[in-house]
Amino acid sequence: MQYDVVNVGEKDLMMGSKFLSDVSQKARFLFISANLVDKKTGKGVFNPYVIKEIAGVRIGIFGLIDETFTTMLQEKDPGLTILDPISTSKAVTKSLREYCDLVVALSQLGESKDKKLARENPQIDVILGGGGESTRAVKDRVNEVPIYRLEPRGGYLGRIDYVLAGTKKPIKFFTSSERDEMEKRLERLITRSIQIKSEMAKSGKQEEMKAKELKFLESKQRELEKALLELEDKNYYRHIATPVQLSIKDDPKVMKSVENYRAESAKLYRPKVASPPEKELPDKEMISRIPPSSPFVGAVSCKRCHEVNYKNWLKTKHAKATQTIVASPQYAQEECLVCHSTGFGKIAEYTTVEEVPSYLRGVQCEACHGMGKGHPGKGGIERKVTLGVCRNCHTKDQSPTFNYLAYLERIGCKLSKLSSE
Length: 421
Prior knowledge:
421 residues; alpha/beta; 3 domains
């Protein structure tokens, strides 16, 4: 896919920096991180930045990882630490500004911290963000610094074009409200052109109507590009996010790489995971395994008052949700556990697939109704499960056929009477 550089994030370090360093030696692109360093020497584990020259423009690209991952890092690599990203960025941009026309920050800080970075370091020309808990695309501008974040899991292809009207130094890029509107029109034209090309490739036919529409769109695209350039005799940039739709065919070479990744992931993780989960334990033994400090009590505790609901739940896909990702070729992605187990990310009892405790396997009562410690009488239990709660996991991408009322009936909670009432 012809990557030039990759910023190291927390998930890249799950197997340890030594593993990642070995992988980087085989890669055809550079791994960078400006604030991941050796604790004793302060020396960076990877290159802090890379400088690329394109069409006579020097582009400096540096990477940042969120310092909140320091705790996780101590378990994997106690000899490493993460420096403050803001102060690190200021030092790096000061150096890059001496040699570069553009400075790009690849950030794993999260949406709110990307904005803070822009406010405190306006010397950055653009921030390309990833990481954090946000699942939405972001197109923002803070302190005159553009910030772009795409939705996770490759749902969109992001592209930023920097267009030079001249080579006078220092090179400055700008955008205006009029230019923004023209760019939106251009974005719609390009997106529609891509859709038509995909439809024509899928059908294998050169349909006359679509060919004419494509020719018209490309003509309008050229006109807009020319108008944008002539709008003012200055440099400008544009950002386009194109949705990667299911109608677009898989690229055979890329698909082969994906399959190889899944196979290698399975070798690394599968031996550590009990599949299927251990046989149902007696209630008393299961309850005895629940740590007193846990805010979650497990479905087996709910069973004592809600036996009918519990029996219905055992028959649902929710009850087997953790087991399904163990069997999946993509199960090594820990982010799947957020929606395939209970309490993941909310307590420190497990951080990887193999560590899911028996009393929290599956999508249990507390995943939808809230944590049960102190219930009845206290606690954050909500009897009604709203559409918003379901949509946390049943997103349009992950669950395109989701129907709120129909799915409620499937899990049995809505139609069965609470045995405690």
